[in-house]
């Protein structure tokens, strides 16, 4: 399956490259360029944290390892609290006792729960209009309800039994429940808390980037144990190579699925912007969030719920996984897709009796 996916990405890169040579006649060349241009923003968001990961593992490990072992949970699962491409994978690898659990935590769980906590919620709350925040919060809560679906599917596909997967994810399930209750009972305070947390993560990433640059440029190791910045950049470069092909492939999918999605949207009561947002969000959460104000209410809730599990599935996350743990590509896609679909179905099938909060 991994080779098939990579051949598909390679085909996308070929089509995008040819179209770029021909003057971007069909729009695939533009996506080809966009994939490479994302290298800068991707590096800025993750290199510093990758550099700091060994230091953070050593610092947190003294408290985390005994506590997680007391619960019977592999300490590597602590890495799932950060996004896959913002240090979650490296932290999981550093702390893990069982290598398989470490890979699962850093790839599957971090791409769902960690990405939601560190990226989707704070960035989403910062981007969308205040009057849309209630719908966004309702969608996030629904997505959190369904994350066990994705985490269990991903665990099974990674070669972990259902029983072990459930037990290893107990801290994640408890934290997800607390987040749901917080968003329900005190949404404004939770929004403030997430934004503060995001600023703290950004501060750490920047510090790691600066220290890595100093070590590379001057040979001065200010903080011992850091991952060299060149190794971190290799991971980013691998992600960029995958995105050269994944973005043209996604553009193709959007075009062939546009009409069916419009028909489906009309039947379930979601406008065109809401249905398009699902495909866009599977590539990157930011463009999907930029379309948020054009969606109807149901579309806003559906898209927020979908992003909890499926955000960045077809671009950064698949690229990161291919560069680090290619054998888990199937587990990553299965987890994110099943969790995202489950969230959408839950929004469509039930009435969400959550307070909408103040506009």
Question: Can you offer a commentary on this structure?
Answer:
The chain is mainly alpha-helical and 359 residues long. It has one domain. Helix content is 80%, strand content 0%. The protein contains 15 helices and no strands. It has helices at residues 2-21, 28-37, 39-71, 84-95, 99-127, 133-158, 162-168, 170-185, 187-218, 229-268, 272-283, 285-290, 297-310, 316-324, 329-349. The radius of gyration is 20 Å and the shape is globular. The relative contact order is 0.16. The model is unreliable at 351-359 (pLDDT under 50).
Summarize the structure.
With 359 residues, this protein is mostly helical.
| Secondary structure: helix percent | over 70%
> How many distinct beta strands?
0
Please identify the oligomeric state: single chain
Strand content: under 5%
Query: What Rg is obtained from the alpha carbons, in whole angstroms?
Result: 20 Å
The run of helices and strands is HHHHHHHHHHHHHHH
The termini sit apart by 47 Å
Number of structural units classed as domains: 1
């Amino acid at each position: 399956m991994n080779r098939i996916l990579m051949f598909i990405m390679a085909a996308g890169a070929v089509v995008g490259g040819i179209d770029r040579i021909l003057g971007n006649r069909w729009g695939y060349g533009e996506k080809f360029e966009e994939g490479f241009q994302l290298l800068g923003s991707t590096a800025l968001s993750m290199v510093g944290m990758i550099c700091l990961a060994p230091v953070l593992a050593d610092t947190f490990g003294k408290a985390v390892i005994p506590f997680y072992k007391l619960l019977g949970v592999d300490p590597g699962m602590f890495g799932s609290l950060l996004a896959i491409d913002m240090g979650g994978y490296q932290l999981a690898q550093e702390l893990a006792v069982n290598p398989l659990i470490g890979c699962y935590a850093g790839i599957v769980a971090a791409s769902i729960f960690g990405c939601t906590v560190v990226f989707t919620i704070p960035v989403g709350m910062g981007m969308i209009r205040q009057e849309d925040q209630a719908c966004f919060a309702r969608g996030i809560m629904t997505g959190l309800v369904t994350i066990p679906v994705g985490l269990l599917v991903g665990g099974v596909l990674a070669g972990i039994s259902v029983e072990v997967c459930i037990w290893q994810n107990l801290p994640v399930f408890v934290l997800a429940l607390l987040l749901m209750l917080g968003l329900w009972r005190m949404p404004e305070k939770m929004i403030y808390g997430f934004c503060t947390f995001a600023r703290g993560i950004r501060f750490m990433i920047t510090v790691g980037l600066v220290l890595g640059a100093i070590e590379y440029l001057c040979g001065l190791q200010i903080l011992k144990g850091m991952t060299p910045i060149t190794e971190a950049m290799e991971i980013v470069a691998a992600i960029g190579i995958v995105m050269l092909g994944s973005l043209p492939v996604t553009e193709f999918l959007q075009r062939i699925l546009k009409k069916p999605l419009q028909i489906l949207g009309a039947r379930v009561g979601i406008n065109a912007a809401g249905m398009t947002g699902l495909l866009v969000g599977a590539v990157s959460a930011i463009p999907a969030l930029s379309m948020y104000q054009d969606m109807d209410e149901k579309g806003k809730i559906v898209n927020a719920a979908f992003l909890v599990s499926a955000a960045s599935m077809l671009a950064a996350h698949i690229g990161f996984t291919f560069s680090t743990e290619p054998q888990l590509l199937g587990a990553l896609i299965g987890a994110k897709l099943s969790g995202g679909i489950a969230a959408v179905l839950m929004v469509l099938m039930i009435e969400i009796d959550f307070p909408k909060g103040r506009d």
